[in-house]
Amino acid sequence: MNKFKIIYSGIGIGLIIAASLLATRGLPEDDRLLYDKASKISANTIEQIWPGLEFNNYPMAIRTGNKEFIIKNGVATSRKPVLPIIAATAYRVDEEINIFMPSIADMSALGTMVEGITSSQEMMFVKGFSMTQNSLTDEQYIGIMYHEALHAHQIDYHERVLFQNIPEDFNEYDILDLILTIDDIAPLKQMYNKELDLLLAAVINPDDHLDDYISARQERTQMLNDYFGSDDIKKIIYLENYYEKVEGTARYLEANVILTLGNEALYDEYMDNIQHYFTGKEKYYRSGMGLSLILDKLTEDWKSEVFIKSESMFEKIERYASIKEE
Amino acid sequence: MIPIIQIVIKEKLRNKIIYVFGILGAILMVLVSTGDGLSINGIKITTFEQRVPVAIAMNSFVGCLTAIVISLQTIPSEIERKTTHLILSRRIDRGKYMFALTIGNISASVMTMFALNLSLIVFIALLGRIDLLFSVLGSIMIMNINVMVLSAIVSVLSIRIPLFLNAILSIGIYFVGVFHNLLSTLSNAVEGPSGLLLGFILKIVPNLSAVQNQAAGALINAPIDFYPLVIQLIFAYVAITLTFFMFKQEV
After folding, report:
1. B2 and chain A in contact, CB less than 8 A
2. N or C: which end of chain B has fewer CB within 10 A?
3. Does position A42 have pLDDT exceeding 90, yes or no?
4. Interchain contact A24–B (C-beta under 8 A)
């Protein structure tokens, strides 16, 4: 065999050996470090943000590509992916509630794609050609971990009230389609914009702006009668309240964890987003965060009852506001 | 084989393509490093350290497209000019001949990439920013892996596929490669045949985005994950190896 073939084959074998030696078999280090950082946030700190939430009680399943690693009691083991697609969520697996997270690389990619779909295709394109495509900070990733942990807590302690009392003929996707049509109704969208501006103002200064916000929201709700039938309105309001309670509180926790980790600029972005109109259900995630922040200023113990009582967060605020007036 | 490789490089030098891209790199460098107009996501880019990754990203974009252009025509031109007959009638192994032309393409593409980035390197040296010099050189060397992979793939495809089709396919491979990480996440986020098809495509297209990420890491002196770099080198190796077997019988 001549010299060229020997050298050329040697290069190929060398590359394959190098690939075998360098291949990561376990959970990627970046994701492990982020989980460790998340789990080390002191229990006292989390207790102050959301009493009763025990982050380390729930196994964390981190998915990277087609592999999934489950972290339980600090130990990471691989398993076949449970969910058919990559997603950030909480879900019961073998009677144990798991928190599911994409790896930070996958989460960044999802974030870039969502940005491209919801706001800027140009930025998605530019990011594709930039040297790094990581759009997610560590703080935001950990914040999202806690967001999903709150969902795990909701399933663990409040599943019946939050998830099992849904009306019989209720179809979430049909109602979401209805909510999407709001985006095309200019006068209604204008009312939402006014309401969201007042929501942020009420978050910052409830004494001066809370009544205005309450009035604006009541007016907007009334305006739904001009465009939808009474049955549809009930379902829209139900879904609004559902997202504000289930997702809005999780977003509130996410933002507060980000602030705890020191990223004030990102926290300010979350605050600012409260007043921005987002399509579909996204706006209720943000209005729910706004309502949570208002409740922080009205009462100390709203978190202990928000998932127990069926009243919506807005109804709770109306109730506290009327008590205050008396 | 070495003389054939040298001929390919000399041909590209004679075409002045490398000099043209050296000048283009200088123009891009001037555009990126001067003025206040550069901003990304609404945030103004003002310091030199902020401009360096932008310059490298732009040069990489131009360099990769140039590698495609350089590599598209070399082998088809040789076949069309019938110079292959002259070579093969001297009992030079045809597989090795195609291999040499491919290595010539890769060498010329890498030299063009360095020509593009020469202005950046000179600029850094003139500013006395030796602290940046090694990390920038490391980043450029890593980016050259993408150039090598693209050049190898385009070269091997040019043996069999018509020029126009090869150009479209190569551009498609480049774009899928650059968005590989995004598309890989997408393939895991959708169920059904589309997810499977996307997953299959991504397995056969090199992950250029992974190399870009490591090049970005090199710029900030972060630890380099060599695994994706080795995988892309394997892609290039496989493509180059195919040149031994893909020779057109009718030539």
Report:
1. no
2. C
3. no
4. yes
